[in-house]
Specification:
Length: 841
């Protein structure tokens, strides 16, 4: 167990308790526990529940404070003497009936319906099937009970008569209730600051009008602590332990706050937001004593209704930081594509002060909802995350009242006549329209902003999300299909220069003389419109001298065509090795010197670093490999092929997603945990570095078992300190051992098993530049002296004072940092790119 120890002297503790007492008194004075309505159904006597705050459930017979309307009867359970008196009687409804309550104060009300299916001589309550509604909201539909069930709802009720209706679903069925609670509670949310609205794709907005809806409690979890019974809750709520909902229990450890009470502050959470035990316990990331963790985050998974809005409240109270000076901040994730930065001390000003965050989250069609927390790199002293409690309530929209029967009789004939006339008009209009108009595609693919994940795509005829317009793909780069046909000579096979996972690639020339590469999708190639849109979105928002430029695209006639700048030298792999026929045996063919190879690696690393950190949003490439690194006529490297990329916030630690990429380059942690990070690109780039050094593919099944996987084979020799044994034969005797040693260390760091142990791409750039410097400063040797195994040639590696990554000059990237949107701008030497892909992603 983690314990928070106070570092303050006695006087500070005294002041703390005085402040806590005064704040709590102020908060408590704004709300007092009500005494109505608590109803004991089907009984002629009252029941006083004394566990916790006292509730007096009054009999529903002869009560002057509410009325019972309809055909009713009651039953008693005489067989269960040990059950609560509250559940020994029930009110039976064989026809539509209701409780009518007079509400004398407007506000948010808790409505609890108690059902216990006992069997009596008159009725077996487990046979009941019925609906429950209240003030236009359908609370329960086709409801039946087998054991004790308490359904809880939150509604905003104005001063008026509040009606709770019970309706059997069939004539042979009936409804019942054992007890009812309807009482005023503090407003669930502040109208002036509506909760954040989150879609399954990660789009965000604000959710207005929550108080006009009904909320049905689905989960209330005490994170890090035991279950909390209604007797120990300030509003008689029930909290369950979170343990059953943890996806990876080992990722979390418990924390406890050993003090009398949390420190409630004005404007934050109160004792009625959640009881003290919720804020006195938490779960935090299982961080080792050395400060590292094998886990990206902690995830709780809850079963919820599909495709429905849910109100989600997450409770926080910093009981994990050893002192207030240890500034802690972390990320909260909803599903995998939305993240929210949590900075406790932007909300409160001392330790152990409760607060909460509210969201309305649209569930997807999976039937579950993930709530996760994870650390942030910019958390100054402590890199962890914590959570104290979670509440999930399904949002119930208002039910439209059906038309009354007598209205149908009066106006029925009129409606039939009008409907017939309207149908005739519609038929005429449609016929005339069809003669004039060409068929159009009504489904438009929209790229939805994905805060904290990747781009997500929905086929929809709507152009808004939560009322906000969506951008379409008309980015000023659209080319006509006729122009593409002209440029490729109607897709002349003699101009085809490659074929990959997306489709065929053609060398082409536009009407203005610009030489380009045209990539045309073909059905059945395994990739489609999502990849097409991702590539456009990504390449239209970035510009960098080490990233391939998008010239245009075409989506006419269901075509998916991308047009890139042309790269004369093709892919990096083309210059490293060739595969000999079906045997997949590779042989080195490179004419690239070690200096050139390092410069190419440095350029590709800079491109990836820009994607990860400098493009305004973090972009994870997800398919880094030697065929996706292209070379221009001067052998300048550019990263290409962004169809599998994922977009997120710069502070995003990971994205949960299905595994995609190329075998042999896949991050093993990503493969195991389905959690994609920037460090997944780093791992793939580490494999590319070995390809450059060894001039062989990442996977070669024609080799002996232990040599098949290049990453494993390279690490084996690197750890033995004999990496020179597997270098490209054309490089033997030409690499400074200091340079090789630094290069090997960089490879080893990139290929670490866990992402947290791998360097950032910025660090990789620096290490490679250092390896190049070591190569360039090697002393001249006679030809007969050249040997990478000659220990006498090894120079001591000088100690270098490394500057922080943010101190690297902006113009090292070759562009202004605020200028990364002009994708039509060509590079300085006017060279355009070729996407030469000869294997699938």
């Amino acid at each position: 167990m983690e314990t928070l120890h106070s570092h303050n002297p006695f006087l500070s503790l005294l002041f703390l308790h005085l402040l806590q007492f005064s704040s709590l008194s102020l908060l408590s004075s704004a709300y007092t526990l009500p005494d109505k309505y608590f109803i004991n159904c089907g009984s002629n006597f009252d029941v006083k529940v004394t566990d916790g705050p006292i509730r007096n459930f009054i009999s529903d017979e002869n009560s002057g404070s509410f009325s019972l309307v309809g055909e009713i009867s009651s039953v008693s359970d005489t067989s269960t003497s040990n059950s609560s008196p509250l559940y020994q009687t029930a009110r039976i409804f064989t026809n539509p009936s209701s409780y009518n309550l007079q509400i004398d104060q407007s506000g948010t009300y808790m409505v609890r319906l108690h059902f216990y299916a006992f069997s009596s001589s008159k009725k077996n309550l487990s046979h009941a099937q019925f609906n429950v509604s209240a003030s236009g909201f359908s609370l329960l539909s086709n409801f039946s009970v087998q054991n004790l069930t308490i359904n809880e709802f939150m509604l905003t009720i104005n001063v008026s008569e509040f009606i709770i209706s019970f309706t059997p679903t069939q004539k042979s069925s009936f409804a019942f209730a054992n007890a009812i609670e309807v009482f005023l509670v503090p407003d669930i949310t502040d109208v002036s600051t509506p909760p954040i609205y989150v879609t399954p794709s990660g789009a965000r907005g604000t959710y207005d009008g929550l108080l006009s809806q009904a909320l049905h409690t689905v989960y209330r979890a005490n994170v890090g602590g035991p279950p909390i019974t209604p007797a120990k809750d300030t509003l008689w709520r029930n909290w369950v332990s979170d343990d059953d909902y943890l996806v990876t229990p080992n990722a979390a450890k418990k924390s406890e706050f050993h003090s009398d009470r949390p420190v409630y502050q004005t404007g934050g959470a109160t004792e009625y937001s959640a009881p003290d035990p919720v804020y006195q316990t938490a779960k935090q990331l299982n961080v080792s004593s050395s400060g590292g963790s094998n886990f990206f985050n902690i995830t709780w998974r809850f079963n919820v209704s599909k495709n429905a809005p849910h109100f989600v409240r997450v409770h926080f109270c910093d009981i994990v930081s050893p002192s207030y000076n240890d500034v802690l901040q972390f990320n909260l994730y909803l599903y995998s594509k939305f993240s929210q930065k949590i900075c406790p001390y932007n909300v409160v000003d001392q330790l152990a002060v409760p607060f909460y965050k509210d969201f309305v989250v649209d569930s997807d069609n999976s039937g579950f909802m993930d709530v996760s927390i994870g650390p942030r790199n910019d958390s100054i002293m402590i890199k962890t995350a914590f959570l104290n409690g979670v509440e999930i309530m399904e949002v119930i929209t208002e039910v439209k009242k059906p038309p009354k029967k007598h209205l149908f009789v009066v106006v029925g004939s009129v409606v039939v006549s009008v409907t017939s006339l309207l149908m005739l008009v519609v038929v005429v209009v449609v016929c005339l329209t069809c003669k004039r108009a060409k068929p159009v595609e009504t489904s438009v693919w929209q790229a939805i902003p994905d805060y904290g994940g990747g781009s997500s795509y929905v086929s929809t005829t709507e152009r808004t999300v939560n009322g906000s317009p969506l951008d379409n793909l008309n980015l000023g780069l659209k080319l006509s299909f006729q122009e593409i046909q002209y440029a490729t000579n109607n897709f002349d096979t003699r101009l085809m220069i490659g074929e990959g996972g997306f489709g065929k690639v053609y060398e082409a020339t536009l009407r203005n003389g610009m030489k380009v590469a045209v990539k045309r999708s073909e059905p059945g190639n395994g990739q489609g419109r999502p990849e097409f849109h991702t590539e456009i979105i990504v390449l239209s928002s970035i510009r960098h001298c080490h990233l391939v430029s998008l010239i245009g695209y075409c989506d006419e006639r269901s075509e998916m065509i991308l047009v890139y700048e042309f790269m004369e030298k093709g892919t990096l792999r083309d210059h490293l090795y060739i595969l000999n026929g079906e045997s997949l045996k590779s042989s080195s063919q490179s004419e690239l010197s070690w200096n050139q190879r390092l410069e190419i690696c440095i350029g590709a690393a800079k491109g990836l670093d820009y994607l990860h950190n400098s493009s305004g949003r973090s972009i994870i490439h997800r398919d880094v490999k030697s065929t996706n690194i292209l070379l221009d006529e001067d052998y300048v490297a550019k990263v290409a092929d962004f169809g599998l990329s994922r977009l997120g916030d710069l502070d995003q630690t990971h994205v949960s997603t299905g595994v995609k990429g190329s075998f042999g380059y896949l991050d093993p942690e990503y493969f195991r945990c389905l959690q994609l990070t920037q460090k997944s690109d780093v791992y793939s780039f580490g494999v590319v570095l070995l390809e450059v050094l060894c001039a062989r593919p990442a996977i070669n099944n024609s080799l002996p078992g232990k040599e098949i996987n290049l990453a494993e084979w390279g690490l084996f020799w690197q750890k033995k300190g004999q990496l020179e044994n597997i270098v490209d034969p054309l490089l033997v005797g030409k690499i400074n051992p200091n340079s090789l040693r630094k290069f090997g260390e960089t490879v080893e760091k990139c290929l670490k098993e866990y992402g947290v142990q791998r360097p950032n791409m910025n660090d990789v750039v620096w290490d490679l530049e250092y390896a190049l410097q070591l190569q360039q400063t090697a002393r001249h040797r006679e030809p007969h002296e050249d040997s990478t195994t000659d220990a006498s040639w090894v120079l001591p590696v000088p100690a270098v004072q490394r500057l922080p990554s943010h101190s690297i000059p902006v113009d090292e990237y070759g562009i202004p940092m605020d200028d990364f949107t002009d994708t039509s701008h060509s590079n300085s030497h006017g060279v355009f790119s070729m996407l030469n892909i000869d294997d699938g992603r």
